[in-house]
Amino acid sequence: MACIKIFAFLTLLALAKAQQNFHTAHMEHNAHRESLVRNDDYIDAHRRQYAFNIWYYDVQINEFKASYLDRVKGMEYQKDSLLIEIDRADEKLYPIKLLSDFSKSCVNKYEAIIPAKEWAKTEMDRCMSQASNKVDYLVTYMVSTNRTLQNQYSNVFEKQVASCETRFNTSSLAVNQTLCLSNAVAETNTFTQNNQKTFSTQLEEAHNDANINIKALHECSFAVQNTTLIKISEANTRIDRCVYGIDDCTQCQGHFCTDVYPISSSKIDPKNPTMANPFYGRSETGSCLMLNIY
Ligand SMILES: *[C@@H]1O[C@H](CO)[C@@H](O)[C@H](O)[C@H]1NC(C)=O
Ligand SMILES: *[C@@H]1O[C@H](CO)[C@@H](O)[C@H](O)[C@H]1NC(C)=O
Ligand SMILES: *[C@@H]1O[C@H](CO)[C@@H](O)[C@H](O)[C@H]1NC(C)=O
Ligand SMILES: *[C@@H]1O[C@H](CO)[C@@H](O)[C@H](O)[C@H]1NC(C)=O
């Protein structure tokens, strides 16, 4: 982009210089018989300059759009990482399911908390299309300025040229034609300069608006990532607590108690009628007691 800018600037300088020389040379020769022919060259040189101005607008608008869309597309990477994160969370549950029927029931109970990959993908895509859909809106004013300038060239300027040519169409009126054309060129150049000032302001504003949209895109995808990661962590916590028997008992389905008594397997002796008493020293019996044998 910088390269194109510098190149375009040098080209403009070169063109401006060439035109200056040409203009001077043109004025010196305008009394000659071949002046009408030279007038054509003079106008053609300006037409090329005008075509270049429009071409350069087109380049800037398209560059702007492409770089904005690239920034939006950068979010694909974060989407992919998030989907991998969901895969990992799902994979982590698989060995827990194999561990026992009980741990499998814990996984079954809570795994639905983990957001579906499809959901995360859709939400991230939604954030990205919200941003990319705005690309045409961002360049609306510049496109309109481009159209205005093109209209000035193809309608106003060309009509003035045609009028100069028909009004002063003989060799004896060559000077008059030259003056008429110079006026048309001067008017068009002033119009062009003002139009270019407008365009630069619009390009600057479009850059600011683009930054605002990209920020909104980051917030949108952050919310999706945050929700996903928080839910994964919630599912893991609940499954862990369930497996360790400290599940929220309002949701228990007769599998376990909140009351856990830890007992070493070495203390368990099926042949001994008087094993350690887990209720010893307790003030309440409770409704259930789970042995955590370690
Ligand atoms: C700018 O105007 C030219 C001439 O009308 C047109 O060909 C080009 O597509 C326009 N560029 C944009 C980006 O609108
Ligand atoms: C120049 O213009 C006059 C009147 O507008 C017309 O009669 C004449 O044919 C024209 N000559 C040329 C060479 O176009
Ligand atoms: C052409 O220019 C000369 C000198 O400026 C002027 O006297 C003459 O009236 C002009 N002719 C026409 C047809 O405008
Ligand atoms: C992340 O998501 C959780 C749950 O949806 C929410 O409570 C929290 O406020 C979010 N954090 C941020 C920084 O948005």
From TrEMBL:
Signal peptide interval: 1-18
Domain of life: Eukaryota
Keywords: Signal
Protein name in the entry: Protein TsetseEP domain-containing protein
